[in-house]
């Protein structure tokens, strides 16, 4: 379920169910995105431009933003692109329409879709490719250690253990 964090100039939304634990958020602006704090996103603790730039680095579409004042929204007017990530999901950038089971339609600007076939949350990647040792060529994806991957690039914390579940 997508949660909303509203600030003065920008609103950030987050859907833990599609987060792939790359940690760009936590590294990108540690004042705004803090894993153990409640709420874990505080848009007013940062600059709207920086928040927008960090959110656009979130590959999964778990994070999105909406400007409430001046400044541009995230837009993808050109072709939708699909990039295979080495040993991992397909990274899609564009306007991705997702029809949920309850019939509601959500448009994501970014998404990571399962390529290994093992996700329990298809069409989205849920990091099962790591557990199953999936190997396939693709673009190397930079994964930095952060609180969501504290030990190694191959071991994100499980979604069920993610403190943001109650954030
Ligand atoms: S996919 Fe990465 S950047 Fe996006 S919310 Fe999850 S941890 Fe943060
Ligand atoms: S590619 Fe990540 S779960 Fe299938």
Overall description:
The protein is globular. Helices cover 10% and strands 23% of the residues. Strands 1-2-3 form a 3-stranded antiparallel sheet, with helices on one face. A 3-stranded antiparallel sheet has the order 4-5-6, with no helix packed on it. It has helices at 24-28, 48-55, 128-131; strands at residues 2-6, 10-15, 63-67, 81-84, 90-99, 105-113. The chain has 3 helices and 6 strands; from the N terminus they run E-E-H-H-E-E-E-E-H. The structure holds iron/sulfur cluster and FE2/S2 (inorganic) cluster. FE2/S2 (inorganic) cluster binds at residues 88-89, 114-116, 118-119, 125-129.
Give the strand content. 15-25%
Helix count equals 3
Structural domains: how many = 2
Ligands, ions, cofactors: iron/sulfur cluster, FE2/S2 (inorganic) cluster
Radius of gyration: 15 Å
Distance between the termini: 12 Å
Estimated helix fraction: 10-25%
Characteristics:
single chain; 167 residues; alpha+beta; Alpha-Beta Plaits; Ribosomal Protein L9, domain 1; 2 domains; three-stranded antiparallel sheet; 3 helices; 23% strand; globular; binds iron/sulfur cluster; binds FE2/S2 (inorganic) cluster
